[in-house]
Design brief:
Largest sheet: none
Structural class: mainly alpha
Shape: globular
Number of domains: 1
Strand content: under 5%
Oligomer: single chain
Distance between the termini: 12 Å
Helix content: over 70%
Number of strands: 0
Order of helices and strands: HHHHHHHH
Length: 209
């Protein structure tokens, strides 16, 4: 793991997790329909789900790296292409101004918010695909500690994601009740999209190890 790339990893994680999406909608919805504690429970449940994806990525990516350098190279290039796709979607959404947090009115007072957040995260195939495309870009395959690198990066991503989600649980209700919330969401989408495409470019122009 190249320590010099960690600042980029952290910035990319923060930008990606700050962009309003399904997870943010789930958190803000629970905060609006319940209390602050409900939003925090939802955020923690999602965070535990991210950790499950981290373990899965650790096992899956390690197996790919150990089995074939060519296979891992293909995964990295496909991952870079996927990041470009996500970045382009984010920029397009910003351009159209189509993003909007929608809070459902119905609520179930007896539901287990933590468990539901965990299930939402674990069963989201987009999260798994994102882990498989995002983490490989920062892995140094010249060392024998590939699994440890994936685990550290995955835990860092999960921690930063949970911090962002807790912030949304704390301030999301106030933030998205403002008249300029749409402009704020568009700005986050633009920054996130640019960083995703830039990250993919880093792969394309970095010499292979």
């Amino acid at each position: 793991m190249d320590l010099s790339s960690l600042p980029l990893f952290v910035v990319a994680c923060l930008a990606i997790n700050m962009i309003p999406g399904p997870d943010v909608t789930y958190i803000v919805s629970n905060t609006m329909k319940g209390q602050m504690a409900s939003g925090i429970k939802a955020a923690i449940g999602l965070g535990v789900g991210y950790f499950v994806h981290t373990l899965a990525a650790c096992l899956g990516l390690s197996a790919i790296i150990l089995s074939s350098a060519m296979a891992f190279s293909i995964v990295k290039w496909l991952g870079a292409a996927y990041l470009v796709y996500l970045g382009a979607l984010s920029l397009l959404s910003m351009w159209r101004g189509s993003n909007k947090i929608v809070v459902e009115e119905s609520t179930d007072a007896n539901k287990n918010i933590f468990i539901q957040g965990l299930i939402v995260s674990v069963l989201n195939p987009k999260v798994a695909l994102f882990f498989l495309s995002f983490l490989p870009q920062f892995i140094d395959t010249s060392t024998d500690l590939v699994s440890l690198q994936i685990l550290i990066l995955g835990l860092l991503f999960s921690t930063l994601a949970t911090v962002c989600n807790v912030l949304y649980a704390s301030a999301g209700t106030w933030l998205f009740s403002k008249s300029n919330s749409k402009q704020f969401s568009r700005a986050l989408e633009g920054v996130s999209g640019a960083l995703l495409i830039g990250l993919a470019g880093k792969i394309a122009f970095t010499e292979r190890q």
